[in-house]
Amino acid sequence: MYSSIKEEAYHCNMQLPKLGLVLFTFGNVSVSDRDKSVFAIKPSGVPYEELSPNDMVIVDFDGRIVEGNLRPSSDTKTHAVLYKHWDGIGGITHTHSTYATAWAQSQRDIPIFGTTHADHLTTDIPCAPPMEDDRIAGNYEYETGIQILDHFKNHNLDYKELEMMLVGNHAPFAWGKTGLKSVYNSAVLEQVAKMAFLTEQINPSAPKLKDALVKKHYERKHGRNAYYGQ
Known about the structure:
By secondary structure, this protein is α+β, with helices and mostly antiparallel strands. It has helices spanning 3-18, 76-85, 98-105, 115-118, 133-136, 140-154, 179-202, 211-222; strands spanning 27-33, 38-41, 57-60, 65-67, 91-95, 127-128, 164-167, 172-176. It has one domain: Class II aldolase/adducin N-terminal domain (L-fuculose-1-phosphate Aldolase). The chain has an 8-stranded mixed sheet, with helices on both faces. β7 (164-167) and β8 form a beta hairpin. The N and C termini lie far apart (36 Å).
């Protein structure tokens, strides 16, 4: 019944070590079936080389296990919150990739320094502040999802336009219309984070990309008259 999203989730999770986005079991990808209001996600703590499609766990949008013999990722409730509140996203990727996580630990947005960043976004990549103590002591993974939602709401951000962010002192999250798009966005986030780090090492006073270049690079890929690609 759920073989399609299990296969897709497995394939997406296997991209993470190939792309250098995870070490050991430091990450997960989920893929949703919105018609059935469920998603498939990596089981908790299982090394990637030991995974199979049948190991993927099916969970509903309230975080309840629907099918599977293994415990789902410890981040499952965070994924569930995002699927439940954000229509249209089909996949979510969470990693502890080195450079993006370093920015999260620094509690800093990633500045838009160059055209690589602007090819994908027109703004800095936001970093939510660290979670309050009472929320940490409560339903932590659920509260992480609420923390992401609140940051987007409080800063008037659009999750359909900005498909990635950092959670302060934690790590990056990315999403997209499909599981593979969420993995792609996670890889872009890591590369942009690395470039921004190196930029500040070379020139601590480096200015942000000027508006004209932001507009040009974003719109040539995403605007009404986009001409990038075939």
